Amino acid sequence: MSTRTNGPDGFGGQYVDHLLPRQSPTRHDLVLAVIPAVFVLTLVAAVVLDLSLQVAVAGGALAGAVAVIDALFVHPPTRGRRRGGT
């Protein structure tokens, strides 16, 4: 006899726990989110300020490069260490 009940999405509770992250995002996860966000913001700024597309892309590339340089060289990843002690 099965006591498992599936939710409206068809997944049982034990499976949903495996889909959700258990830790908050790391600094490097946030850098990966910042890179495309910077491009979107610079394109919006270009439309609002009536700048050329080349200036917007160059600004986004510069800001994205700063984020990557920070993530790789200023605060590099460490082997096997995550926040929270695991």
Automatic annotation (TrEMBL):
InterPro entries in the record: DUF8015
Membrane spanning stretches: 30-49, 55-74
Keyword Transmembrane helix part of the UniProt annotation: yes
Source species, domain of life: Archaea
Keywords annotated in UniProt: Membrane, Transmembrane, Transmembrane helix
Name of the molecule in the record: Uncharacterized protein
Organism: Haloarcula rubripromontorii
